[in-house]
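Look at one such:
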Amino acid sequence: MLNACSTKTTLKSEGNLLAAMREYMTGTAKVGEIAARFGVSPATISTRARLLGLPKRRRGRRPHAEPPPRHREIIQLAKDRTYEQIADQFGCSKQRVHQILKRWSGAKTEHLSDAVTKADEENVYKSHVVSFRVGILEHSLLKKAVNTRHFVGSYSVNQVAKALVYHFIEATQGNLESGIVVTT
């Protein structure tokens, strides 16, 4: 029998110790609940587990093995909506929508969309950042353009604006090289 620590309360028999440690490893009960069932303190359960070389339990709840219903719905909607639209519908931030999609990107589920892995497709390093502000009218026009036939695959206002800039650069490349400048 394990006698490596001296505590006032002990697990009376080796059978109780094994049962407590088995429940510690396989059960979903909290350490405090296990301790109460065996008539010892939670510290005794934790100490015995440590002395036996068992892995520590992590704090908090155990992670889900598969997406909960709310996350499945968000994943499904990501196929044809923007993060902003999904965030508005669920009352959360665009960042939270991204976190959910990223969290379940490696899960084996038929609900995952191509939107989750879209960032991996274009892993080209780009050294310059172009940033500018637009007014309310321009923003609403860009928002209307999301997922129209002209901008297939665009999921956000930023992607539409980026596509417009790239299209402008491609269309005016010859003019820019010859010295003709277009201003707005």
Remarks:
- The chain has three domains: 1-62, 69-121, 136-178.
